[in-house]
Specification:
alpha+beta; YaeB-like fold; 5 strands
């Protein structure tokens, strides 16, 4: 399954990584690794994750170490990543991206 990070999801990741790197050098890289692990879990079996937004059948996978939620849709053999948000941020931040 191919994974495509939409441009706004890439911006989410860059913003988060920059923040963590400013706190402790190397922590941003660890966040990227965690996001990729969570994305692989979604890629392997997207149906394991519940639908959180019916418009576009958007599902959510959580990261383990960092408090992030990754919102994605599986269409055919492609996994679209719509947003990567900190757990404290409201879902309204990404729903307009659909």
């Amino acid at each position: 399954m191919t994974v495509i990070f939409r441009p706004q999801a890439v911006e989410d990741v860059v913003e988060a990584v920059s923040w963590y790197e400013a706190q402790v050098p190397g922590l941003g890289e660890q966040l990227i690794d965690e996001i990729l692990r969570a994305t692989r879990r979604a890629q392997e079996n997207p149906e394991l994750f519940r639908i959180v937004h019916r418009d576009g059948n958007v599902r959510r996978v959580l990261t383990s170490r960092f408090p992030y939620r990754i919102f994605f849709s599986a269409v055919g053999e492609t996994l679209y990543i719509h947003a990567v948000l900190h757990g404290a941020r409201h879902d309204r931040r990404w729903t307009g991206r659909l």
